[in-house]
Automatic annotation (TrEMBL):
<dbReference type="InterPro" id="IPR012337">
    <property type="entry name" value="RNaseH-like_sf"/>
</dbReference>
<feature type="domain" description="HAT C-terminal dimerisation">
    <location>
        <begin position="527"/>
        <end position="575"/>
    </location>
</feature>
<protein>
    <submittedName>
        <fullName>SCAN domain-containing protein 3-like</fullName>
    </submittedName>
</protein>
<dbReference type="GO" id="GO:0046983">
    <property type="term" value="F:protein dimerization activity"/>
</dbReference>
<dbReference type="InterPro" id="IPR008906">
    <property type="entry name" value="HATC_C_dom"/>
</dbReference>
<dbReference type="Pfam" id="PF05699">
    <property type="entry name" value="Dimer_Tnp_hAT"/>
</dbReference>
Length: 601
């Protein structure tokens, strides 16, 4: 066995201290790091050792003792002057470093606020000008004004600097998200795909997980897709993303998609491919998208709907002159509204608001169509004077309003699959009430009821009752057939009204019936490990891809026609900041960065 080498002694580990006598004897002072510093040439000795200090003084400043003899008044005066100069220079250096750090901190905060509000990088320069203009007008003391403006000018706020700041901020919040995701037991993943204004396909991933104290939702990534967007390509992109960031695919308990073939296909779709890597993962096609599509499948009232939409488009889009004349007519008649509403086929339920506006402005529309000399106006006027047509229009207005209320209730953050299923089940029960009410007092159809009371031949038709029957069947078919058992959701949502079975968890479940802590903490206490795991799993599950759809709205607001040159990386960073609930530690970031003043002062 070879002999180990003798460990060498390190003098810097012997707890040496600076001796204050060295200041008068060798013109040295202790710096902020505790090491001796020469007052004459500012050289720093590596250790607090008198031999090192003496050697430097004797060899470098040989004439100092002759010019300022030890113990003389001249030497004391010189040492005092050198000490004051050194301390003054340290204060200036520290103040400069502090000011640079503050300027960088201000730059980071401004970049964060602007990006949070989806503003372009060049706006940072405009903000700087606005702050200077405000200071010039508000601050009256000229000396203070000059100092404040000088400090503002020192803040680096160019467009390139703002872009770099956004990269730093986005990386910080993304790292925070990744650190919490790696600790999560369950991850719910919502995936949707859309295109930006350059027709680049962007795959948005949103996650929900338990962050230690509460459930959190945040955007995980925005992946650009080149070429086709097949299930295989989507699958590979997501797998690569998870592997690159050290995330475990097996922790995904639910995958929510928009129901597109590339995601929902049973064999080659994204859901099927991910299930092979995450066997415990459930799949859910977005229930919001399905509820929006439900009425489209019932075409009995399609002619009425198309005619109303055609009337709106005729008045608003035939010509600018015609639209102006209609608005002027509304103003002259002191109408309740100033214009009709256009609808959007992508957001189908916007037709409900359009229908409501037509019903409320029906008299003004009839007056305008009578005065209009266009040949199509007569057809639209005939419809507006037909009581049966108007009855169907009012019925659609009411039913679309109910669907719109349902859709808005399904949207929003922090909506789990239990919340969504509960609302859908409640709406299914409402449909039975609507069917009964349609043949009686019309309490849930105020627009239709008001028209029938004011007209001579307005009435409820078989088409309306058939529409409700078809809607009930459609909801039952779509929302009762998904991969998550309702009994499982009911246990977590209403544990005190559920009945235990004969499974091994039954005894634990019976104890839970007397535990009130569930309602105050959302999570079952540690004494119920199985039920806690079940609750954590279910409460993590997202109910829709609404968060992805909302992110696409933010994406379009960020990458406008004026920001076409925005790179995918910058787009992703801007979107992260705009959507994330996390806040960066800006002070810590500024301390870790190389701080500097603006070059355009």
């Amino acid at each position: 066995m070879p002999h180990s080498k003798e460990k060498r002694r390190k003098v810097d580990s012997e707890n040496r201290k600076f001796n204050n006598e060295w200041t008068d004897k060798y013109a040295h002072i202790q710096n902020a790091e505790g090491k001796p510093t020469c007052l004459v040439c500012l050289v720093i000795c590596s250790v607090n050792k008198e031999y090192n200090v003496q050697r430097h003084f004797k060899t470098t400043h040989t004439n100092f003792d002759n010019e300022y003899p030890p113990g003389s008044e001249a030497r004391q005066t010189k040492i005092k002057t050198l000490t004051q100069n050194y301390q003054r220079s340290c204060v200036v250096f520290t103040r400069t470093c502090t000011l640079q750090q503050k300027a960088t901190t201000a730059s980071l905060r401004i970049a964060w606020i602007l990006t949070k509000n989806k503003r372009p990088f060049t706006n940072s320069e405009t903000v700087k000008e606005c702050i200077q203009a405000a200071v010039e007008e508000v601050v009256t003391d000229e000396k203070v004004k000059e100092q404040v403006i000088s400090s503002i000018k020192s803040i680096p706020l160019s467009d390139t600097t703002a872009a770099r700041r956004v990269d730093v901020l986005a990386t910080d919040v993304f790292d925070t998200l990744l650190n919490q995701l790696r600790k999560a037991d369950f991850i719910s993943l919502a995936v949707d795909e859309s295109t930006d204004n350059l027709d680049v396909a962007q795959l948005c991933m949103f996650v929900r997980f338990f962050g230690g104290h509460c459930f959190k939702e945040d955007i995980l990534g925005l992946i650009p897709l080149e070429g086709k967007t097949t299930g295989e390509i989507l699958f590979q992109k997501i797998v690569d993303f998870f592997q690159e960031n050290g995330l475990d695919l097996e922790r995904i308990n639910l995958l929510v998609t928009d129901g597109a073939p590339s995601m929902a296909e049973k064999i080659k779709g994204l859901s099927a491919r991910l299930s092979a890597l995450a066997p415990k993962m459930k799949s859910l096609h977005c229930l919001i998208h399905q509820s929006v599509l439900c009425p489209q499948l019932s075409g009995e009232l399609k002619n009425t709907m198309d005619s109303v939409m055609a009337t709106i488009n005729f008045i608003r889009s035939t010509s600018s002159l015609q639209h102006r004349l209609f608005r002027k007519l509304l103003a002259d008649m002191s109408a309740e509204h100033v214009d009709l509403l256009l609808h959007n086929n992508v957001r189908w339920l916007s037709q409900g608001n359009s229908f409501m506006r037509v019903c409320e402005l029906r008299k003004e529309i009839i007056t305008f169509l009578r005065e209009c000399k266009h040949r199509k106006a007569e057809t639209f006027l005939t419809n507006m004077l037909d009581d049966e047509f108007v009855s169907e229009m009012c019925f659609l207005c009411d039913i679309l309003h109910h669907l719109n209320v349902l859709n808005l209730g399904l949207q929003g953050r922090d909506k789990t699959v239990t919340d969504v299923v509960e609302r859908l089940t409640a709406f299914q029960n409402k449909l039975d009430i609507f069917s009964s009410d349609l043949s009686s007092r019309l309490l849930h159809f105020p627009t239709l009821s008001g028209f029938i009371k004011s007209s001579q031949s307005g009435k409820v038709t078989k088409v309306m009752s058939d529409f409700l029957d078809h809607l009930k069947h459609n909801f039952a078919q779509r929302f009762n057939d998904f991969d998550i058992p309702k009994e499982l959701l009911h246990v977590v949502r209403y544990p005190f009204t559920s009945t235990p079975n004969t499974s091994p968890k039954a005894a634990e479940f019976l104890k839970l019936h007397g535990c009130t802590e569930l309602w105050t903490k959302h999570i079952v206490p540690e004494m119920f490990p199985n039920m806690k795991k079940l609750a954590m799993c279910v409460l993590t599950m997202l109910g829709s891809t609404y968060t992805c759809d909302s992110s696409f709205s933010h994406m379009n607001a960020i990458k406008t026609d004026h920001r076409i040159s925005l790179t995918n990386e910058h787009l992703h960073h801007c979107l992260w900041i705009a959507v994330t609930p996390y806040e960066p530690n800006i002070s810590h970031l500024a301390q870790s960065m190389k701080c500097h003043f603006s070059h355009l002062r």
